[in-house]
Design brief:
Number of helices: 26
Strand content: 15-25%
Structural class: alpha+beta
Radius of gyration: 35 Å
Largest sheet: 12 strands, antiparallel
Distance between the termini: 115 Å
């Protein structure tokens, strides 16, 4: 019986197995037969129903939703973006900036409002993921051309982050992704701590237990996210015992306009902040490098009236808001500083083009935040840093400025007060005090804000603008009241240090000038008939060419280290004469410094601070003259203007500069070493301070760069000042006591040893390729031969001088100098 039952069970199982296979085979045949008529559903639809969760299960009824560019949903501790399909593959800017930060982070020039990252991004879909990809427009080509394929393949864009699609909106018009990890973790692409900070502060990691998303707000064209992050760090910039760095970051994402602003070509004869790209669509035999200026988009409300030459308001003016943290007493000056540019925009045909506003109250705009990328704000920063800056955010596709923030540091006015006293006190009674009149402080603040606004409009520094006016004009009251002290507010020309005691009705503080009107007209004039950047080029070229040769419209780059007309902090068209006037005034200030400071305050803090800054003023005046030696004039122009771009400073001018330096920089400036001051502020270091200042200018004269330029231009024309002549003139002046059998003071002994040390450097060192704009092989140049010759001549002179030395210190000094020279020529 058992055997029969087993057989029945096996038979039953076998029949069931065979029946299953038969049924499955029938099903397969049926599907194959109907394959031609059955439609397979799209892959995404299958995933929507099969893999993605239902919308209501992701965005639950408890969700807090904010409508805007994207819908932003908060569900418990998670945040979701509901991204419309229409915004996929669309250009946006992702801007990261500090909202709050600890004291000392970044070393003084990093503050609330400082940008840390700006990235052009697109949200793209790939299968069941959404990617954030960083875009670049540095290499472009017309979409219709075959080479565009190669441009894309050779500029593959990095993926910043990848998100799994959580669900699809109910009408299938949008995808939903969880952005909690992107904004809630340490994503390097948007972090406020770059690698150098992490290394400096020994950052270990982000502490997730003390880090969170503070808020997310969605507006019609932007989304603002605030993050509170705390990092574990062994050496934080402050509160060291806690070993933590806490920062609050603001992440702005803004939709870039689909109707791109028409770009405007850069002309290097007019200073402008720029962006560049390589266009591979060019018919030339190379990629065409195109450079455009960065500017706001200004379009006239009434184009026909604009064509008739009437002043017309723009459709969208440039608006700056004051930071709510701005002290009430300064607000009017800041607003005036912004709106000083109204007149310059009138030169471009616009009225009321730029406006300053008070910050809105909570009732007027509860969402107002200085970090919100919709608003341009003058940030008032509680920091001991003495500075102000004018950064901006622009569209990398066209150069359109989207937003800007001017940073004003609280202590900045102290620098202006100090320099006002030091540079104008001799001729300006209002400056002879630590309590500068409020009217003067307000005027200074107004002009600093105007300078920074100029940067946010697109203008860089123009260091040639102060060269526009003759030195003697600075002593003319009527001239200075009308023209100020430079042809633009964008020069580093802060005060009139040329005016002398007794000169009347002098303006001492800078102001806007004719170059500002000219530059704004170049950048912002609207050309209704020009439908492309190329169509504007001819009229813009004519505008610039018509001003060529007029020093009021000359541009000089801040990066120039060789043109004595383009210097920081100088004024006038003859820096030798201007520095002479400046030193005359500074000697008067030095004699009165205790009376104007410590005698009034009954302490020496301000005296010590101002004395240190006075040495800096002296050094600047000296530096303005040093630049003539080996100097080269740069006159940027087109070939049609038929002139040289680069011309060496005339030999006679260079020799005059060398004579002036021996008299004013390298002779012992004992008036700077005033016992009445030094004995009150420091117990030692007097001679070392002076040695360092003198050696700085000596080393600049004897730099590889200066010698290289002298060698180059003497090769082009033997009548030019040569490197050999310069070294000889320098040696004779530095060691003049050796020819006159005079005692050598301690200041001169220090300077002479600095001269030998720099000769040793020229004999043994090489140029720093990274720092030198025009690198050359020093060892195979004339430099070593010239220096060796000068060293031997000096050695012979010192042998004779040693025997004739008047005192023991001088005799020992000469013997030591000979020993140092022997060590250069025959190193041990």
């Amino acid at each position: 019986m058992i055997f029969i039952k087993k057989q029945l069970i096996i038979s039953l199982c076998l029949s069931l197995f065979l029946g299953f296979n038969f049924s499955e085979a029938q099903s397969k045949r049926k599907r194959k037969k109907n394959a031609k008529t059955e439609q397979v559903k799209p892959k995404e639809t299958q995933k929507k129903k099969g893999q993605f969760k239902d919308y209501d299960k992701v965005i639950t009824e408890d969700a807090i939703t904010d409508e805007g560019l994207f819908k932003v949903h908060q569900v418990d501790e998670k945040y979701f973006f509901e991204i419309p399909n229409s915004y996929l593959d669309t250009d946006m800017l992702l801007v990261s900036r500090f909202s709050k930060l600890p004291t000392g982070l970044g070393g003084g020039y990093v503050n609330a409002g400082t940008k840390t990252n700006t990235r052009l991004i697109r949200w793209e879909r790939f299968k069941d993921k959404i990617l954030i990809k960083e875009r670049s427009y540095s290499a472009v080509a017309d979409d219709s051309l075959p080479i565009n394929i190669s441009v894309q393949n050779n500029n593959y864009e990095p993926i910043i982050f990848a998100f799994d699609i959580q669900t699809i909106s109910k009408d299938s018009s949008a995808v939903v992704v969880d952005v909690s990890s992107f904004y809630g973790t340490d994503v390097k692409a948007i972090s406020g701590l770059p690698a150098r900070y992490r290394q400096q502060y020994k950052v270990r990691n982000l502490d997730k237990s003390r880090s969170f998303i503070n808020s997310m707000k969605s507006f019609p064209k932007n989304i603002e996210v605030i993050q509170d992050f705390t990092y574990n760090a062994a050496k934080p910039p402050s509160n060291g015992g806690i070993e933590s760095i806490s920062i609050q970051m603001n992440q702005s994402m803004i939709l870039l306009p689909k109707d791109k602003m028409q770009p405007r070509y850069f002309d290097e004869r007019v200073g402008w902040f720029t962006l560049s790209k390589y266009d591979y669509s060019s018919e030339k035999l190379k990629a065409d490098r195109k450079t455009f200026i960065r500017r706001w988009r200004l379009v006239p409300k009434d184009i026909e009236a604009y064509k008739r030459g009437e002043l017309v308001e723009p459709l969208k003016p440039i608006v700056y808001y004051l930071d709510p943290a701005t002290p009430e007493k300064f607000r009017s000056y800041m607003k005036e500083g912004v709106e000083l540019w109204k007149k310059a925009f009138e030169a471009a045909g616009f009225k009321n083009a730029i406006i300053a506003k008070e910050p809105p109250t909570k009732e007027e705009n509860p969402d107002f935040s200085p970090e919100d990328i919709r608003y341009s704000v003058i940030r008032y920063v509680a920091s001991t840093t003495r500075n102000a800056t004018g950064p901006s955010v622009s569209d990398p596709r066209t150069g359109e400025i989207i937003e800007s923030d001017i940073i004003w540091y609280h202590n900045h006015l102290r620098s202006y007060r100090n320099r006002y006293l030091l540079e104008t006190g001799a001729a300006n009674p209002s400056a002879r005090t630590l309590d500068t009149p409020a009217e003067d402080i307000g005027e200074m603040m107004k002009m600093v804000i105007a300078h920074e606004v100029g940067h946010t409009l697109g203008l860089p520094h123009n260091m040639a603008a102060s060269y526009a006016y003759d030195v003697e004009n600075y002593r003319d009251g009527a001239f200075t009241q009308k023209n100020g002290i430079a042809a633009t507010i964008m020069d580093y020309a802060r005060y009139n240090y040329i005016a002398q005691p007794g000169d009347q009705n002098i303006r001492f503080i800078r102001q806007l000038g004719p170059y500002d009107d000219y530059a704004i007209n170049f950048g912002y004039r609207y050309y209704p008939e020009a439908n492309s950047a190329d169509a504007e080029r001819q009229v813009l070229d004519q505008l610039v060419s018509s001003r060529f040769g007029d020093p009021k419209y000359m541009f000089g780059s801040q990066g120039s280290r060789f043109d004595p007309r383009s210097q920081t902090e100088d004024i006038g068209n003859n820096s030798i004469k201007a520095s002479t006037y400046g030193l005359n005034n500074l000697k008067i200030v030095a004699a009165n410094l205790p009376q104007w400071t410590s005698d009034q305050t009954n302490n020496y803090d301000d005296l010590g601070e101002l004395y240190g800054e006075m040495l800096g003023v002296w050094s600047r005046y000296i530096g303005h003259v040093t630049s003539h030696v080996g100097g080269v004039y740069e006159d940027t122009q087109n070939p049609s203007q038929k002139g040289d771009v680069y011309t060496m400073v005339p030999k006679v001018q260079q020799k005059l500069a060398m004579q002036w330096l021996h008299k004013n920089a390298f002779a012992s400036p004992t008036w700077l070493v005033d016992k009445n001051i030094l004995s009150k502020i420091d117990y030692a270091g007097y001679t070392e301070r002076l040695r360092g200042l003198q050696a700085r200018h000596l080393n600049r004269l004897m730099s590889f760069e200066t010698l290289g330029r002298l060698i180059d231009y003497n090769a082009l024309n033997s009548d030019n000042y040569s490197a050999l002549e310069m070294l000889r003139d320098l040696r004779k002046g530095i060691w003049s006591e050796a020819n006159l059998s005079q005692n050598v003071t301690v200041y001169r002994r220090n300077l002479q040893r600095a001269h030998i040390d720099q000769l040793a450097i020229l004999m043994t060192d090489e140029m720093n390729r990274a720092r030198s704009r025009k690198y050359y092989n020093v060892n195979q140049s004339d430099v070593r031969a010239l220096v060796r010759g000068e060293i031997n001549v000096l050695k012979q002179r010192l042998r004779t001088a040693t025997n004739a030395a008047v005192n023991t210190e001088t005799k020992y000094h000469y013997r030591d100098a000979i020993a140092r020279i022997d060590n250069i020529l025959n190193p041990k």
